[in-house]
Amino acid sequence: MKIAIIGAGVSGLTAAHHLTTRGLEVEVFEKSRGLGGRLATKRLDWAHMDTGAQYFTARDPRFVQQVTSWQEAGVVEPWPFTPYSLSADGALLPSPDQTLRYVGVPGMNNLAHALAKKLTVHRKQCITSLVRKHNRWRLVSDSGDQFTDYDWVIVSAPAEQSRVLLSGHTPIAEHISSELLEPCLALVIATSGHAPEAVQGIFGDGTVGWVSRLSAKPQRAKDAAYDDLWLLHFSSDWSANYDPSAENNIGPIGLEWLQNAIDTLPDQKEKKPLQIVNHCQHYWRFARMAKNSEQPPTLIDKSNHLAAIGDWSYGGRIEGAYLSALHLIHTTF
Ligand SMILES: Cc1cc2nc3c(=O)[nH]c(=O)nc-3n(C[C@H](O)[C@H](O)[C@H](O)COP(=O)(O)OP(=O)(O)OC[C@H]3O[C@@H](n4cnc5c(N)ncnc54)[C@H](O)[C@@H]3O)c2cc1C
Description:
Distance between the termini: 10 Å
Number of strands: 20
Structural class: alpha/beta
Radius of gyration: 21 Å
Strand content: 25-35%
Order of helices and strands: EHEEEHEEEEHEEEEEHEEEEHHEEEH
Number of domains: 2
CATH superfamily of the largest domain: FAD/NAD(P)-binding domain
Shape: elongated
CATH architecture of the largest domain: 3-Layer(bba) Sandwich
Number of helices: 7
Strand order of the largest sheet: 7-6-15-16-17-14-18
Mean pLDDT: 95
CATH class of the largest domain: Alpha Beta
Low-confidence stretches: none
Bound molecules: flavin-adenine dinucleotide
Largest sheet: 7 strands, mixed
CATH topology of the largest domain: FAD/NAD(P)-binding domain
Helix content: 10-25%
């Protein structure tokens, strides 16, 4: 059996990995040059930075088992820290929780590379349409390339994009929401100056939803040109009101927000304000599911040999992406 998988994020690569292990012929198609999708580690000459998912948690025993073997293989490590959160009056307070957080090392997308070992991945192939002929599927890419003779097609793109690709071919497309994932503007700033070492992650407010001190994550290389590397994820509401085509530099907004938050911490012996040495920003059009969004039913069409998987079909997040692929494999192949 020959299977095409569209998308090389966690869900697509997990499906590909398990199907290959079962001896099936699998090819993955990815529109980007890199692997991992929203599990992204950007490599610039001044820093390597995680711009998408910052860490992940593992609750389901099947995912816990996978994370344990990734840990043994040196692919992931725990990131132990006590996060801070902003109080209603804007002060940073420690927010103790028991959550065990993991990160890919030396970058988040190392998970994707671990899953993709031994897989055939056609990179920079954006699949624009599917064609059914003689009970087989053909894939057409935006460059006009055609890939033929697949028994099954598994689409693992974000919900909105999966819906477009599958429309007209299967009733499952109707169950995929066209407005499920919210946007997120990510800002990375390399800074000089001082911030207390305990500040590694911040649950923010209606402007900035989350901050990671990237330079404090395990096994991150640091450049002598700056003291720290920070990532700020602007909130969904703030990001939805941002016009990505304007390409405004939001570095100063992010820096001011971060400095104001840090200034609320008591007993700072060393006061050396942060200054931006370098910055980079990335707009995620489809980032995370809105809280309390409705789950679609399982999206497998056994008559037409089509399926849609992804975080959005299994509760969101990296764990959901992984489990959506496992669910498909165990119920269908
Ligand atoms: C800003 C941000 C912060 C996040 N924070 C966290 C977090 O802290 N913890 C957590 O667990 N999760 C977090 N997430 C969510 C997590 O990243 C996702 O749940 C997970 O990575 C989704 O994996 P996936 O395989 O379902 O989809 P994706 O990673 O989106 O993979 C889909 C892939 O399909 C490709 N693709 C799409 N259309 C086509 C096409 N037509 N042809 C070919 N390829 C195509 C895309 O390029 C992509 O590589 C965050 C995400 C973002 C963006």
